[in-house]
Design brief:
GO terms for molecular function: adenosylhomocysteinase activity. The protein has 123 residues and is an alpha/beta fold. The chain is 46% helix and 11% strand. Strand 3, helix 4 and strand 4 form a beta-alpha-beta unit.
């Protein structure tokens, strides 16, 4: 199996810390967790391709993982060059979900990240 490379984050080694923070956030987001529990088996978003551009935070990571649990294919970037939580982005990348985000992106990097998530590998 080939290594997953469809991401760019500040430091992938932050993924474990991000995973622990996501686990905490899941306990604070009962609505999304209830949706996962109720609909994951049905895969209501199977076949959907969702490109997101929203603050890449731990809470957004819970949303992203919920979309994936419901069957969607997801690609993500941050909507703000300063709001990314690098450990959240790393945790999402470590799950094999394409994400292009790091805190302190330049404007040029921001637009590059946006372009990366808009370009799906198979069209």
């Amino acid at each position: 199996m080939s290594e997953f490379t469809d991401y760019k984050v500040a430091d992938i080694s932050l993924a474990d810390f991000g995973r622990r923070e996501i686990a905490i956030a899941e306990t604070e987001m009962p609505g999304l967790m209830a949706i996962r529990e109720k609909y994951a088996a049905e895969q209501p978003l199977k076949g959907a391709r969702i490109t997101g551009s929203l603050h890449m935070t731990i809470q957004t990571a819970v949303l992203i993982e919920t979309l994936v649990a419901l069957g969607a294919q997801v690609r993500w970037c941050s909507c703000n060059i300063f709001s990314t939580q690098d450990h959240a982005a790393a945790a999402i990348a470590a799950q094999g979900i394409p994400v292009y985000a790091w805190k302190g992106e330049s404007l040029e990097e921001y637009w590059w990240c946006t372009e990366q998530v808009l370009n799906w590998p198979d069209g």
